[in-house]
Design brief:
The chain is of the alpha/beta class and about 220 residues long. It contains eight helices and seven strands, in the order ααααβαβαββαβαββ. The protein has a single domain, classed as Rossmann fold. Bound molecules: S-adenosylmethionine (SAM).
């Protein structure tokens, strides 16, 4: 796996701006969706080599967060999965779990599907979907993960089961284009009843873990 080059400043600054809009002003998403999809469709070819996706450094923050996910989930979803490396890590860590990965970019999903084959009923499956309008019923998952991806908080909270976990991990900490500061995650998820249970660093990355409380008796 080739070493990743530093993200150009222009992309880092634009990414941070878009991330802020999605977290603080999610109603702006319809205006961002088209350019976002086109950007990632264009950058999908060669993504793993350019960004070192799948390397230890890329996955360390997500792996650190998964240590807090107990008991092991039955159904896990990675949102903004790109070429699928985060979902594949979840599948390795939790061999009993059914794992789904979604991404708005068709080209990214093609690259992810190429790693596992096309079996929508299989243990691991990928599909094109928008995090702002997930094609899943309420309370479908007991783990929802984001790796280098802005959280669409309302939809994540909707599809998360009681006692389920949300993870937001950034491979390069605050230098990640799609990085959400801990204070924004605490604030945004608390509004949906999800409380932080852990936050930390692993390799160059950072992670945040939240949990939905049990249903009242
Ligand atoms: C920076 S990339 C990270 C990809 C992968 N998680 C990784 O770490 O290599 C962000 C990904 O989020 C996807 N994305 C952005 N907005 C999305 C949305 N609303 N719904 C689903 N995927 C989205 C992009 O297409 C892109 O693949």
């Amino acid at each position: 796996m080739a070493a990743s080059r530093p993200t150009p400043a222009r992309i880092r600054i634009t990414g941070r701006m878009l991330n802020r809009l999605i977290v603080w002003a999610p109603w702006t998403w319809p205006a961002i969706r088209g350019p976002m999809r086109r950007f990632f469709d264009r950058t999908a070819p060669g993504w793993d080599d350019r960004t070192s996706a799948g390397s230890v450094d890329h996955l360390a923050a997500l792996a650190g967060a998964l240590l807090y996910v107990k008991p092991a989930p039955e159904r896990a979803l990675e949102i903004g999965t790109g070429t699928g490396e985060g979902a594949l890590l979840i599948a390795r860590e939790f061999p009993q779990a059914r794992v789904r990965g979604v991404d708005i970019s068709e080209r990214m999903i093609e690259a992810a599907v190429a790693k596992v084959g096309l079996d929508p009923e299989g243990r691991i499956a990928f599909r094109v979907a928008d995090a702002a309008d997930l094609p899943y019923d309420d309370e479908s998952f007991d783990l929802i993960a984001h790796l280098n991806m802005p959280p669409f908080i309302a939809e994540s909270a909707r599809v998360l089961r009681a006692n389920g976990y949300v993870v937001v991990a950034s491979s390069w900490g605050a230098a990640t284009p799609f990085y959400t500061p801990r204070s924004a995650l605490d604030w945004g998820f608390a509004k949906r009843g999800i409380e932080p249970i852990a936050a930390g660093e692993a390799s160059a990355g950072t992670y945040w873990v939240g949990r939905k409380p049990p249903k009242p008796e």
